[in-house]
Amino acid sequence: MPSLHEGFGLTAAEALATGAPVVAAARGALPDVCGEAAVLVDPLDVLGIAGGIEEALRRAPKLRAAGPLQVAPLTWARHAELVAGAWRAAAGA
Questions:
Q1: Contact assessment for residue 10 and residue 28, using Cβ atoms and an 8 Å cutoff
Q2: What pTM does this model have?
Q3: Residue 93: predicted pLDDT
Q4: What angle do CA 24, 53, 37 make, to 5 degrees?
Q5: The predicted structure's pLDDT at residue 8
Q6: Which of 47, 46, 45, 14 is nearest to 30 (CA)?
Q7: How many Å separate Cα 32 from the centre of its chain?
Q8: What is the pLDDT of residue 42?
Q9: Which residues are within 8 A (CB) of 58 and not within 5 positions of it... i.e. 6 or more apart?
Q10: What are phi and psi for residue 37, nearest 5 degrees?
Q11: Nearest to 60 by CA among 11, 17, 15, 22
């Protein structure tokens, strides 16, 4: 996922949740979403992306295990709690 900008990185999170080895851009929200469970690359460096794919293949067993653990806290229920809390704080409740 060599994206130039991601608002959240849902596609990467979904891939990590399935245990797929992920190569993602070291930009936007992707480093936070992926953590150490993905190989992060410069999305403008073609050789770097190729190297990232090779690294992901070498590290595939560890990445497959780390992915679901990385994104386990990223549930819709948790998101709803955070949004509701932000609205309550904004309303002064």
A1: no
A2: 0.83
A3: 66
A4: 50
A5: 87
A6: 14
A7: 6
A8: 98
A9: none
A10: -85, 5
A11: 22
Q: Which two tokens stand for residue 38?
A: 């993905």
- Measured CA to CA in angstroms, residue 77 lies from 15, 35, 73 at distances of 19, 21, 10
User: Considering all CA atoms of the chain, what is the largest pairwise distance in Å, rounded to the nearest integer?
Assistant: 52
- Three-state secondary structure along 1-51? CCCCCCCCCHHHHHHHHHCCCCEEECCCCHHHHHHHHCEEECCCCHHHHHH
How large is the C-alpha radius of gyration of the chain? 15
| Tens digit of each residue's pLDDT, the chain (93 residues) | 999 988 889 999 999 999 999 999 999 999 999 999 999 999 999 999 999 999 999 999 999 999 999 999 998 898 899 899 999 999 986
Query: At a CB cut-off of 8 Å and minimum separation 6, what does 59 contact?
Result: 21, 39
Can you tell me which residue has the tokens 């992707």?
30
User: In this predicted structure, what is the pLDDT of residue 10?
Assistant: 92
